Amino acid sequence: MPVITIDLGTMANKEKKGELVQALTEAASTVTQIPAEKFIVFIKEMDRDNIGVGGKLLSDTIK
Amino acid sequence: MPVITIDLGTMANKEKKGELVQALTEAASTVTQIPAEKFIVFIKEMDRDNIGVGGKLLSDTIK
Amino acid sequence: MPVITIDLGTMANKEKKGELVQALTEAASTVTQIPAEKFIVFIKEMDRDNIGVGGKLLSDTIK
Amino acid sequence: MPVITIDLGTMANKEKKGELVQALTEAASTVTQIPAEKFIVFIKEMDRDNIGVGGKLLSDTIK
Amino acid sequence: MPVITIDLGTMANKEKKGELVQALTEAASTVTQIPAEKFIVFIKEMDRDNIGVGGKLLSDTIK
Amino acid sequence: MPVITIDLGTMANKEKKGELVQALTEAASTVTQIPAEKFIVFIKEMDRDNIGVGGKLLSDTIK
């Protein structure tokens, strides 16, 4: 039942997403002792135009 | 003012989204006695590559 | 796997929360044809001091 | 570290998003006295087919 | 209808929360040209034990 | 800048929260190659009365 949501910029490919889901699930399952199959992970990708850090768009600060 | 957010895979079409918004709003309004017009619903669709269940991508487990 | 989150003010009691969870799950399951047991619901209660509508705190507008 | 997330319909252009990120960051920094560079802003745009108000899709109520 | 959510540590008092709700609403309304009364703000306070920055708990890094 | 949010039941103690923040940060940093110090983690604990699985409250299904 625990739900892990990660908000970040766009990811490279499906393979990396698979690795991320697995790594986050294993990390949380190990610490909480909640079985891995109970975990849900949402990868919420955003365009750099939609992310602000320190008041500036990420697309203006990372070239 | 209550906000209902549903995170799920991609939905079939606009008609189904309309039904979902109506059904969730009516269900919550009936139980909470808060008038239906106060409710906001966000349908957050995600690709199956962006959803993990039990450490695996949904796109790898549901064909 | 779908996750329904409802953000609202504090609720009356556990019984009402049970009704809300059941009603939201049934509503969404019926429309999406996804089995009820796949659904997770999070009830996120907030104090009226922590909710703003139209620029004012709910605790200042609802007596 | 504070994270501001704004859920809304699709925005006009990148320039407006830059203004929104700056305005939200400055507003929150001024009130909380937390330095602006600590703030993260996520602009979560949604299609009007994915937003419900009062039980109806926004795409059906706003022409 | 736009919903602004701010996730941060515990705030000082109700008065500051009122200022924050007003400031965020005005900032977003001015930029988007959406009337202020349409905006909802959620202030999601968290204990420093529940916030991690750079892999460490905020309660261990800020004395 | 990436933000990891974990929604789950109440956790045992601060020490476990520290382990969880560290484990999630390291897991995500390793896969994404984004430096650990850029990551924010929010632990969102909820009472079992506020969590529904399969239409039932967790407090009614887990004794």
TrEMBL record, chains A, B, C, D, E, F:
Gene3D superfamilies: Macrophage Migration Inhibitory Factor
Keywords: Isomerase
Pfam families hit by this protein: Tautomerase
SUPFAM superfamilies: Tautomerase/MIF
Molecular function terms, GO-annotated: isomerase activity
UniProt keyword Protein biosynthesis present: no
All copies of domain 4-oxalocrotonate tautomerase-like, residue ranges: 2-60
Keyword Metal-binding: no
Source taxon at top rank: Bacteria
NCBIfam families named in the record: DmpI
Protein family (similarity comment): Belongs to the 4-oxalocrotonate tautomerase family.
Protein's name in the database: 4-oxalocrotonate tautomerase
